[in-house]
Each structure stands twice: as structure tokens, then as C-alpha cells.
Design brief:
It is built from 21 helices and no strands. By secondary structure, the chain is mainly alpha-helical. It folds into two domains: about 90 residues, no CATH class; about 260 residues, no CATH class. Bound molecules: iron/sulfur cluster (SF4) (2 copies). The site of one iron/sulfur cluster (SF4) has 16 residues, from helix 6 and helix 7.
């Protein structure tokens, strides 16, 4: 079957951040130094070559960009300054846009103005919606109790509705990823048993990011781990313990201690990451895409307003706490409905899935190699 090429693929990827793909002359230094480049996933030279040749569908079906953790060793060793690490990062952004059936990722990654505009519109709609709800159902001076401006029971229903919407978007896009990278491939077949055997890899890589630790940058890995653990803790608190989190003004240490630790983790990790991007003191932080900034700034904003409304409530300042809470939700909703499914946060879902799919693919390729050719003994003797 003829393979269609896209001669403008390099230009397309440039819109996702990669700038120097054309400089690559395929010496292979980058693949030699990459700690994660092993058969059957050899990179980043191979994806660089596919890009230059315009093999769009091959790249769309590839998992290699997800196996890279942007340690930057390849970029440091590249004699042509072709920035293969940055190219892999840009390919991940491009792949997110290919998995997304709505086309919003493509729009947001290619235009920071569109992403920022969508975030602002969503924030304003959220603010107006919450204020209207509050003024018609409660008293702005009251944070909790029967006259609460934003009763935790109503917010709880809203949070779960958001979670369902978010899950639907992400699931649809994850299914597309699975189709592109595993199920739709004609050259491999993955038995159901392999799926069942390997499914543990998804939570394993989600919670440990263990391949990142193998990159040799333990500090970066630790910061990511703090961010992930804090985010998951906060998510569990909000989805399952919201009433206890918002009750007060007494501090319920059994619950609130987890919130304080998660908040400290989120704020600390955001500051460390933002500082690295401002100082550009690592290969991975030398170049920042607009989505990198939006992700960190939004997360910092949400964390700070979250703890601030909590402090104001405990201080007996009901009105200030309610206003801050509305401001907090004006960050939370755009973050969950725009950033998570359509931008940088989507990494959280796709990367552990990619580890699982890579394992399935490697196993299927190995099984294919071992499989008898199907030729009869005389035929094989003839070939020999
Ligand atoms: S990206 Fe650089 S190191 Fe890698 S193959 Fe190309 S020229 Fe060589
Ligand atoms: S940035 Fe690191 S993990 Fe990614 S391709 Fe380069 S050497 Fe490999």
C-alpha cells in the first residue's frame, strides 16, 4: 500500500514548538545517549527522520514521543543543535492534538491567544454562574450552614458533573490513541490476555513515573512526584470529602492535614518549575511553550486561592471567603475543562497509557518474530 507523505510536516510541527528539525543529519548520537531508547523503540533519531520525510501517519501511530521524559541528554550531544529533546516534546503536543477528536487541542497548541481566550471566557462564565447561584440561593456573608452562599452539597454536584464531562472527553481521546498506536496497526495483533496481564502498568506509571527517575535527573523527578501526589490528594479530597473540607470554622485535622500538605506540595512544585523556566537553567526549561506557562500559572493560582479562601473562612471572614472561593472556582473550572483534556495536563492520561501500549506492542512484535513462517519444510529447505 502506498504511504502518503506530508511535505509540510516539519512546518506543521514547528507550530507546536520544534524549531530545528531540518538541521538533523542522522548521525544517531541522540539515540545512542538516550537512556530510554531500546528495541523496538529506538529514538529520537527515527522520529526525526520520519518528520523530515513527512511520514505523518507513521508518526501518528508511534509511541516513541511518549517514552521520552525530556532529560535533554540527546540535545546536549547533538552536533547539529537540532534539539531532538524539544522535538520529542513538540511531537507529544502534536500527538495530543491528533488524539483529540474535537480539534480544540490543535487550536490551543497552535495559538496561545485562542487558549488564553478560552480560559478567560470559561473563567468569566464560571464566575457569573457561581455569583448568580450564590445570590439566589444564599447569603454572601455566610460561608457554611443553611444560608451558605455556595453550599458544599451544590458544589459537590457541580464537581461531579465536571468530572463526568472530563472523563468522557478523555476516554474518547484515549480510545483514539489506542486505535492509532495498537488496535489499528495491521502488522501486530494483541491478544486479550496481554491486555489483562499488562493493565497494571497504567497505575504503576501514573503513580511512580518510574521511567522519569531512570533519566538521571532525580530532582526533576522528585518535583514531578510531589506535584502528582499533591494533585491526586487534592482531587480525592474534593471529590469524596468536600463537605468535611469545607465544614468549619474549626480545623478538622483528620481531613485538613492532607489538604495543607497537598497545597504546600502544589505551590512548592509550581514555584520550582516556574523558577526553572524563568532562569532557563536546564535543557528542558530553555524553551517554554505558552501551554507550559499557562499550566503552571493556573495551577499556582488555583492552589493559592484555595488555601486563601480556607484561611479567610477560618478567620470568620465569610464574605471575603466566598468571594475568594468564586475566584478559586474561576481557575478550577477552566483548568479541569480546558487544560486537562486539551492541553498540557493531558500528559497525565496519555503517558501511563503509552507505557502500557508500548509493552503490548513490544510483546506482540516479539511474538511475531518467534512465529513460524507457515512454510512447509521442503519450502524452507529450498529457501535455505
Ligand atoms: S538529532 Fe542531532 S544527534 Fe540526533 S541524529 Fe540528528 S543530528 Fe544526530
Ligand atoms: S530528552 Fe532524554 S529521554 Fe527524551 S529522547 Fe532525549 S535523551 Fe531520550
Amino acid at each position: 500500500m502506498p504511504i502518503r507523505v506530508n511535505p509540510k510536516l516539519v512546518n506543521e510541527i514547528e507550530r507546536y514548538g520544534a524549531e530545528d528539525v531540518s538541521k538533523c543529519y542522522h548521525c544517531g548520537n541522540c539515540s545512542a545517549v538516550c537512556p530510554h531508547s531500546t528495541q523496538p523503540f529506538v529514538f529520537p533519531r527515527a522520529p526525526m527522520r520520519l518528520l523530515q520525510m513527512g511520514f505523518e501517519s507513521k508518526l501518528q501511530n508511534s509511541l516513541e514521543p511518549w517514552l521520552c521524559y525530556y532529560c535533554g541528554q540527546c540535545s546536549e550531544q547533538c552536533p547539529r543543535d537540532a534539539e531532538p529533546g524539544e522535538t520529542m516534546m513538540s511531537l507529544r503536543r502534536w500527538l495530543i492534538s491528533r488524539y483529540d477528536f474535537t480539534g480544540l487541542s490543535r487550536l490551543f497548541y497552535r495559538s496561545w491567544k485562542a487558549e488564553l481566550g478560552a480560559l478567560l471566557i470559561m473563567a468569566v462564565l464560571t464566575g457569573v454562574g457561581f455569583l448568580l447561584w450564590g445570590f439566589t440561593h444564599g447569603d454572601i456573608r455566610s460561608y457554611d450552614g443553611p444560608n451558605a452562599f455556595l453550599a458544599s452539597s451544590a458544589v459537590h454536584i457541580f464537581d461531579w458533573t465536571m468530572a463526568v464531562v472530563l472523563t468522557l472527553f478523555l476516554t474518547a481521546n484515549c480510545v483514539r490513541m489506542w486505535w492509532f498506536t495498537v488496535a489499528g496497526r495491521k502488522d501486530i495483533s494483541v491478544p486479550l490476555l496481554s491486555y489483562l496481564r499488562g493493565v497494571y502498568l497504567i497505575p504503576l506509571h501514573f503513580f511512580t513515573q518510574k521511567r522519569y527517575a531512570e533519566c538521571g535527573h532525580k530532582t526533576s523527578w522528585a518535583v514531578h512526584m510531589v506535584l502528582m501526589a499533591s494533585y491526586v490528594t487534592m482531587f480525592v479530597l474534593i471529590m469524596f470529602f468536600l463537605h468535611a473540607v469545607q465544614a468549619g470554622p474549626e480545623i478538622n485535622w483528620n481531613v485538613h492535614i492532607f489538604g495543607y500538605l497537598a497545597t504546600a506540595g502544589l505551590i512548592g512544585a509550581c514555584i520550582v518549575m516556574l523558577r526553572a523556566r524563568v532562569k532557563k537553567d536546564h535543557v528542558w526549561s530553555e524553551r517554554s511553550h505558552a501551554s507550559d506557562w499557562m499550566f503552571l500559572v493556573l495551577l499556582l493560582y488555583v492552589s493559592v486561592t484555595g488555601i486563601l479562601q480556607h484561611i479567610l473562612h477560618r478567620s470568620g471572614l465569610g464574605m471575603a471567603a466566598n468571594i475568594t472561593y468564586v475566584c478559586h472556582m474561576m481557575g478550577v473550572v477552566p483548568m479541569l475543562l480546558i487544560e486537562v483534556p486539551f492541553s498540557k495536563w493531558a500528559h497525565m492520561a496519555y503517558r501511563p497509557l503509552a507505557m502500557f501500549f508500548a509493552d503490548l506492542t513490544a510483546e506482540a512484535l516479539l511474538a511475531k518474530e518467534k512465529k513460524p513462517s507457515g512454510l512447509s519444510s521442503p519450502q524452507l529447505a529450498e529457501i535455505g
